[in-house]
């Protein structure tokens, strides 16, 4: 992945997009700070389908017996 300044990306946007479609994403910088990434639509689709950890947990087939017992004080006892 290469870095390109925003003003250069504007001037060569077509080439930046062509490179991204060929599998070479670009980091767009503004005032020497990374601000955006140009990548192909196929790569964006692949990355957007990766589930979050929370969604994975919520989709796990759990039974009530799999969960720890709730202690009335709100704190669980921990064994050492």
Secondary-structure map with pairings?
Blueprint: E1 2-5, H1 6-11, H2 13-21, E2 26-30, E3 33-38, H3 41-48, H4 53-59
Q: What would you say this structure looks like, in words?
A:
The protein has 80 residues and is of the alpha+beta class. The chain has 4 helices and 3 strands, in the order βααββαα. The protein has a 3-stranded mixed β-sheet with strand order 1-2-3. The radius of gyration is 23 Å and the shape is elongated. The model has no long low-confidence stretch (mean pLDDT 88). It comes from Acetobacter senegalensis. Belongs to the phD/YefM antitoxin family. This is Antitoxin.
Question: Can you list the strand order of the major beta sheet?
Answer: 1-2-3
- Main beta sheet: strand number and arrangement? 3 strands, mixed
Number of helices: 4
**CATH topology type of the domain at 2-51:** YefM-like fold
Mean pLDDT: 88
Quick one: overall form?
elongated
Radius of gyration, taken over Cα atoms and rounded to an integer in Å: 23 Å
Query: What's the total number of strands?
Result: 3
The low-confidence parts are: none
- What is the CATH architecture term of the domain at 2-51? 3-Layer(aba) Sandwich
Family: Belongs to the phD/YefM antitoxin family.
Function: Antitoxin component of a type II toxin-antitoxin (TA) system.
Protein name: Antitoxin
InterPro entries: Antitoxin_Phd/YefM (IPR006442), YefM-like_sf (IPR036165)
